[in-house]
Amino acid sequence: MQRSDLHKLDLPDTPGVYLFKKGRTVLYVGKATSLRDRVRSYFDDDLIVTRGPRIVDMVTKAGTVAFEPTLTVLEALVREAALIKKYQPKANVEGKDDKTFLYAVITKEEWPRVLTMRGKDLDSGKSDFPIVKIFGPFPSGSQLRDALRLIRKIFPFYDTPKPVMTKSKHALAKVEFNRQIGQYPRALDAKAYRRAIRHIALFLAGRTTELRKSLEKQMRQAAKEERFEDAAELRRELYALDHVQDVSLIKEDREETGEMRIEAYDTAHLAGTNAIGVMVVVEAGMPVKKAYRTFRIRGLKKDDDIGSLREILSRRLGHPEWPLPDVIVVDGGRVQKKTAEEALAAAGLSIPVITVVKDERHRPREILGVRAASISVSETDIVLANAEAHRFALAKHRAARSKELRAR
């Protein structure tokens, strides 16, 4: 397949899975945050350096690329695993020991648990519990764990080391804590829990269309029977299924295509008035000005930079339709870093926060948090994003101040 063939595919800029094929034979299955950008990356000039000869050979042999869009990266992840299991593509499994891959399993117990296991343990029968369903292999174990963490926000499940009803007092206390924070079911309702496990099984099998139809049918039936609380819960599950996002699942896709998204924040005010907060975006070392956003700070005391930062992030994270960043950059030191991290934690997100410490002339003196970010991010891009946020905040403040003066 050649680069010139790409225009025939009409690839969408959405999450999904893609299949390189030679005739009816599937050579490779992958997932993507953006199908358009990911598939195009296989035709870059430096492919042999970034992917190696095995992938170059696969692309050369392929005659076409099939694809399936999904609503979320999470859905693409489980669909990828289901297709790898179905087709066993050579480029996915050749030269790899599938015994080291991680699988998701559901136990055959009164209160089924959802656990992860290595392929070698499944083959050797090392588990001390009966297993009713196996899903995988998942190429990335860390992403499977992240996926299960997201799934349980929609359908809470047990993942305790021992069967649910045979526990020590300490273990029961841990179960109760996890119930309180929504990780485990809040009540031991056997019928409702078995239904949730069926939903999880459909999702992990990549049968999300069937799952959505089932949830919609149950929601209509609950409304018809005037079980309005049940109907509302099913509506919540449907919405979450279509909108759940997490930066840890997106990060690997963006790193491979070199499209890291950095969001930087800053505020500007004059003697505590006309406080303006801004968000700027840098991708691949370039400002993305169409993604810039402005926030007018409301109801805070003069010069409350910490409160302003908290408000800006809270309002920004209230927009699930905006892409999540790989890293967040703020002005200041450890206090600002902690404030941003707390705002993210309140939204259920774990995104690296980096701060730029300035000297008395407002020049970058120190950058905090790069090592802890666990992603490959350029300090040059960090400084660029920070400087662009400061410039944009001042420009917006001047415009607002000028408008106010003209109105007097």
In summary, what is this structure?
The chain is of the alpha+beta class. The chain has helices spanning 35-41, 47-50, 53-61, 73-87, 90-93, 119-124, 141-154, 169-180, 190-204, 208-224, 228-243, 247-257, 305-316, 334-346, 379-407; strands at residues 16-22, 25-32, 64-69, 102-107, 114-118, 131-138, 261-270, 273-283, 286-287, 293-296, 327-331, 353-358, 364-368.
Index terms:
15 helices; alpha+beta; 408 residues; GIY-YIG endonuclease; 3-stranded antiparallel sheet; Nucleotidyltransferase, domain 5; single chain; globular
Description:
- With 408 residues, the protein is an alpha+beta fold.
- The protein has three domains: 3-93, GIY-YIG endonuclease; 98-246, no CATH class; 260-407, UvrC, RNAse H endonuclease domain (Nucleotidyltransferase, domain 5), CATH 3.30.420.
- The chain has 15 helices and 13 strands.
- The protein has helices at residues 35-41, 47-50, 53-61, 73-87, 90-93, 119-124, 141-154, 169-180, 190-204, 208-224, 228-243, 247-257, 305-316, 334-346, 379-407; strands at 16-22, 25-32, 64-69, 102-107, 114-118, 131-138, 261-270, 273-283, 286-287, 293-296, 327-331, 353-358, 364-368.
- Strand 7 and strand 8 form a beta hairpin.
- It is globular, with a radius of gyration of 24 Å.
